Amino acid sequence: MNNDSKTQGFPRALGDIVSVVVAPVRLRRKALPLAAAFAVASVAAACSAGASPQTAPSTPENPTPSQVAATTPTPSAAATTASPEPSSTAVQKANANYKKFDPKNFGDALGGQNSWYPLVPGTQTLRDGSINRGSRKLKHQLRVTVTDVVKEVDGVQTVAVLDQDIDAGQVGEASLDYLAQDKSGNVWYLGSYTEIYEGGQFVNAVDAWLAGKKGAKPGVWMMAHPKEGMKYVQMHNSRETIRSEVAKVDDRKCVPFKCFKSLVILEDGTEFKYFGPGVGHIATEPNYSGGEQEKEELVNVVKLTRKGLAEFSAEALRLDKHARKESKVFANSDAAKRS
Fold it and tell me: Which residues contact 291 (CB under 8 A, 6 or more apart)?
């Protein structure tokens, strides 16, 4: 089914896509009205599941602000439902040593053992982003969805996390991060694939790497028990190595709808990334003055319904399939599938 036919099937009840809204979408001045901003958070990719590999996901007709309000529960109830804490039965062991990767230490990639980055399918966050270029402040949004799509990479099961960069309501960049969770709750980074679009059309594929291919090695995405001052490698491939350091633990960080006791990671010495327990990435701030000054802050968290999850997972499957066509690194990799 093509994008047009799927778009004509909208709108349908918002409840078909979102089961829980943790944070209400706030009113803010943008080029898009509130309805379009919310669609970015919860509905827009519903059309993308059947898109051609050369076509970026399109945005369907949006729910009205009244529909959004009608499906928004109280913050306390929503947080309990859609911000899972680690299981009390999870095995608690040492933090990962990025130099010692052993596939025997891994099992199911899905789950919420790591509260700083829970890999719970259907969890979707939306961050407002801005970047200063000269006298201009350019705004965009980043929608991140934990899918239920899994792929074996370097001998372990990984889950595909779909990251979509949205500018003026249109996906300009889409990527998959392949993450694995070991038995102690450490989250590892084993690969990534990114596509660029212009005017809704595929331009090229960049940032394609997989652990075990062309010298690329797994890195640690998130420690199970981060301690201040802890240093580690997040990723390593033939083009770059990203090093991270735990800057602060339980640092107070507020976003438009809530304040968190956050974890602060200094990534590559250039930017601070803030993580909220049970939610994941909540903010980004530069560790420098001047320049482009890119910033992000969390404005919405939702828990997708089974139907909504299926549509975003279909988009992840499409990207993984296209990666095996466009990238030599992915060409002979295992095909992704829904768990």
Answer: 132
